[in-house]
Amino acid sequence: MKVTLVPSAVAADGSAPASIQHLTSYLVDESVVIDAGCVGFLDDPEKQANVRRAFLSHTHLDHIASLPILVENAYRAHRPGITIYGSAYVISCLKSNIFNWDVWPDFFALSTAETPFLRFETLEPGRSVAVDGLLVTPIEVNHVVPTFGFVIEDENSAIVVSSDTGPTEAIWERARSTKNLKAVFLEATFPAEMHRLADLSKHLTTATFAREVEKIDRSVRVIAVHIKARFHEQVVTELEALRLANIEIGRFGIPYCF
Predict the structure, then answer these.
(1) How far is CA 23 from the centre of its chain?
(2) Backbone angles phi and psi of 248, in degrees to 5
(3) Does 15 score more than 90 pLDDT?
(4) Is residue 140 classed as helix, strand or coil in its secondary structure?
(5) Which helix (DSSP H) or strand (DSSP E) does residue 71 occupy?
(6) CATH architecture of structural domain 2-257
(7) Sequential DSSP letters for 145-167
(8) What is the pLDDT of residue 86?
């Protein structure tokens, strides 16, 4: 399984993706994306056109900002458009607030049976979906809007993408029973001193990140992601001070292979 954290910012000299990021997308094996915060801003439209399926964890803008652009770039006149997978809440929000003619053309209405701009599939918690050699299982996590994390498996390995969450349980129960689990992509949004804001917004601080790692109870790589750009240096310093085994800071634009 190849997983790339899609860049949403570049270094000051333009030479490489920046370590600080503002939006979230995971490209899995070229044809599947988890969240569409920035994948639609890739500088190669043909690479976007390879994406056939987009799994959306929730409706916050940093996870869906580039979705309309992705749908447009992935469309070809003589083949079906991209398929969007999300909860009933996510699909309803996209129809009401994004593809509504005011913000973006209503691709749901414009789609025809012959050549749809997009298709959509409603996800149910715990019900796995088999796509492109992957098994994707949505698991409810603890955020301020209905949100899924995902367990993603192929025949050789499995990963967990926690998405945005405060302290949670169900996804770790699933992770502990998942064969060939290789890595967990876990949010570390705020420094420890911002615990009140983290509690209100249902995110993790570096302190609660450490407690969630304990719940995994498996010796796997844990990759810290979703670090708020303004506090990136402080969060990284605090994570390194924890001296937890197998913890690494997410890198962007360079594939992880599992």
Answers:
(1) 9
(2) -140, 155
(3) no
(4) strand
(5) helix 67-74
(6) 4-Layer Sandwich (3.60)
(7) S--EEEEEE-SS-EEEE--S-SS
(8) 98
Q: Which residues contact 99 (CB under 8 A, 6 or more apart)?
A: 68, 105, 106, 107, 108, 109
Q: Is the separation of the CB atoms in 39 and 174 below 8 Å? A: no
The β-bridge relationship of strands 53-55 and 82-86 is: parallel
- Average pLDDT across the chain, whole number: 94
Res. 83 pLDDT band, cuts 50 70 90: very high
Q: Is the pLDDT reported for residue 196 higher than 90?
A: yes
Can you give the pLDDT at residue 78? 65
Domain boundary assignment for the chain? 2-257
Distances (CA, A) of 245 to 146, 173, 204, 238: 31, 20, 19, 14
The whole-angstrom separation of Cα 2 and Cα 182 is: 12
- Residue 44: pLDDT band (50, 70, 90) is confident
Q: Which residue do the tokens 């005011």 mark?
A: 102
Which residue in this structure is represented by tokens 């025949």? 155
Q: What pLDDT score does 39 carry?
A: 95
Q: Which residue from 213, 203, 216, 199 is spatially nearest to 243, judged by alpha carbons? A: 213
Tokens matching residue 20 = 């600080």
Return phi, psi of residue 46, to 5°: -65, -35
- 18/251 Cα distance (integer angstroms): 9
